[in-house]
């Protein structure tokens, strides 16, 4: 928070969970086409034995273009539903639980900066 000098968050756990889950889901929607292309590049077959075949996908943007051209634009978002479920839970809990876990380490009434070791411990426990 800027300007107020109050370092305590006025947002409830539910609000923090919802906003962090929404942010993680938005990021998933934006990046899943690149993730789909990355997986296709990783899974394509290389030369087998004596026969050399040309790879179907070449480069990240070429892979995105090939998928969109051959399977349609919606194919870039295959797997979005499980990805959103994962991000909603993981993103929401990871950021939403940071403050409660930090309060367990330093107490609710702690004033001032939290020591670095305790911040790292809070992150590792999430």
TrEMBL record:
Cellular-component GO terms for this entry: membrane
Molecular functions per Gene Ontology: transmembrane transporter activity
Q: Which UniProt keywords apply?
A: Membrane, Repeat, Transmembrane, Transmembrane helix, Transport
PROSITE patterns for this protein: SOLCAR
- Spans of repeat Solcar: 11-104
Pfam families named among the record's database cross-references: Mito_carr
Instruction: Give the similarity note.
Output: Belongs to the mitochondrial carrier (TC 2.A.29) family.
- For this entry, the protein name equals Uncharacterized protein
**Organism expressing this protein natively:** Trifolium subterraneum
């Amino acid at each position: 928070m800027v300007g107020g000098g109050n370092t305590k968050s006025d947002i409830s756990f539910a609000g923090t969970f919802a906003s962090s889950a929404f942010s993680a889901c938005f990021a998933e929607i934006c990046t899943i086409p690149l993730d789909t292309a990355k997986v296709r590049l990783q899974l394509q077959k290389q030369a087998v034995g004596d026969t050399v075949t040309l790879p179907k996908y070449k480069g990240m943007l070429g892979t995105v273009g090939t998928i969109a051209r051959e399977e349609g634009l919606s194919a870039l978002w295959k797997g979005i539903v499980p990805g959103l479920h994962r991000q909603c839970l993981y993103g929401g809990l990871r950021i939403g639980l940071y403050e409660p876990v930090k309060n367990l380490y330093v107490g609710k009434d702690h004033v001032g900066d939290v020591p670095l070791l305790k911040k790292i411990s809070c992150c590792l426990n999430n």
